[in-house]
Amino acid sequence: MFRSRAKTEKAPTDQVPDLSQPNRDPQAPKGRPTPKRSEAQTQRRRAVSQPLDRKEAMKRQREARRTDLAKQRAALANGDERYLPVRDKGPVRKFARDFVDSRFCVSEFFLPMAVVILIMSTIPVAALKSASLLVWLGVIVMMVIDSIGLGIRLKKQLNERFPDEPKRGAVAYALMRTLQLRRLRLPKPQVKRGERP
Fold first, then answer.
1. 3-state secondary structure string across 61-130
2. Half-sphere exposure of residue 155, counting CA atoms within 13 Å on the CB side?
3. Which end of the chain is more exposed for a tag (fewer CB within 10 A), N or C?
4. pLDDT tens-digit series, residues 138-185
């Protein structure tokens, strides 16, 4: 730090050995001129870090993104925690998924029921139309009651099992999972129905 500039300028510079050549006799001539330092440094940098042009850089970036997405897809299929998206990572989210997947939920059958009710309401029979409205009201009430019960039980289990972990958004995450059919859920269910998570 406090050395004089003259000493540092006189110090011999370290030369990087050329690794591209096979082991040769140190007394034998090199067979080519020594490149300038700036040329050697730019060649080294270009070979190690940066691609030659912008198109090549974009191509590498696309390939990296594609491999990351493929890893995420595989993780969603088999539940590998390392490559899951951020919203699905962590022991709290895993427990919430398993808690939902281990039981029947009314919300799970919402979409099929909605299709049946829609078909019933399009038939030009007054009795079927009024019945479809009653069924629709019944489905919504059952979904609300089931979701409130599931949310209370899940919150209690999370507080018992993970007292020190942040649990923000875990109940909403689980309730959104109940709206999907079991076989369409991602990450795929890891527990069977009736199993304890």
1. HHHHHHHHHHHHHHHHHHCCHHHCCHHHCCHHHHHHHHHHHCCCCCHHHHHHHHHHHHHHHHCCCHHHHH
2. 11
3. N
4. 999 999 999 999 999 999 999 999 999 999 999 999 999 999 999 999
Q: Give the pLDDT confidence of 33-67 residue by residue, as tens digits.
A: 888 888 888 877 766 555 558 888 888 899 999 99
Contact call for residues 151 and 71 (beta carbons, < 8 A): no
Amino acid at 86: V
Residue labelled with tokens 């009024």:
130
Residue 36 DSSP label: P
Give the integer Cα–Cα distance in Å for 22 and 132: 84
Please check whether residue 99 is in contact with residue 197, taking contact to mean a CB–CB distance below 8 angstroms: yes
